From TrEMBL:
Keyword terms: Elongation factor, Protein biosynthesis
InterPro entries membership: GreA/GreB_C_sf (IPR036953), TF_GreA/GreB_CS (IPR018151), Tscrpt_elong_fac_GreA/B_C (IPR001437), Tscrpt_elong_fac_GreA/B_fam (IPR023459)
Domain Transcription elongation factor GreA/GreB C-terminal: 46-121
GO molecular function, one term: translation elongation factor activity
Species for this entry: Azohydromonas lata
Name the UniProt record assigns to this protein: GreA/GreB family elongation factor
Gene3D superfamilies: Transcription elongation factor, GreA/GreB, C-terminal domain (3.10.50.30)
Pfam family, any one: GreA_GreB
Keyword Protein biosynthesis: yes
Length: 132
């Protein structure tokens, strides 16, 4: 099982720049991800990396239940429809991971979850969309 830390993630330069504008780097939990991630140009990001606007399929490690979600910016979040904010605990945990990696998160109430990235059903960059 591959469990990642912030430095084991890959972000596109564009995603990194946009996310940096959304948060206060000193105080937000996303700061560690942004500070430690490997950066790559959008045109060079591997197709198996979770980027912004990626639609991914996860498998819960405890139950095996499948979950499909699209990683989005906070203004576009609609969890009931599968659009999960990148600044949510789940969103922060999957950004920059690769297929096969394990995401771990803790919700505000203390509940901890973990899921394996089973597939990336859509990644903008793999489809030739570099500015989404």
């Amino acid at each position: 099982m591959n469990i990642l830390t912030a430095e084991d993630r890959t972000l596109t330069e564009l995603d990194h720049r946009r996310l940096g504008r959304l948060i206060h780097l000193d105080t937000h939990p996303m700061a560690a991800v942004l500070e430690e991630a490997e950066l790559t140009p959008s045109r060079e990001v591997p197709a198996d990396v979770v980027t912004m606007h990626s639609r991914i399929r996860l498998a819960d490690l405890d139950s095996g239940q499948a979950l499909t979600l699209t990683l989005c910016y906070p203004a576009d979040a609609e969890p009931a429809r599968g659009f999960v904010s990148v600044l949510s605990p789940v969103g922060m945990s999957v950004l920059g991971l690769r297929v096969g990696d394990v995401a771990r998160w803790r919700l505000p109430g203390g509940w901890e979850g973990a899921a394996r990235v089973e597939a990336i059903e859509f990644q903008p960059e793999a489809s030739g969309i570099y500015t989404l």
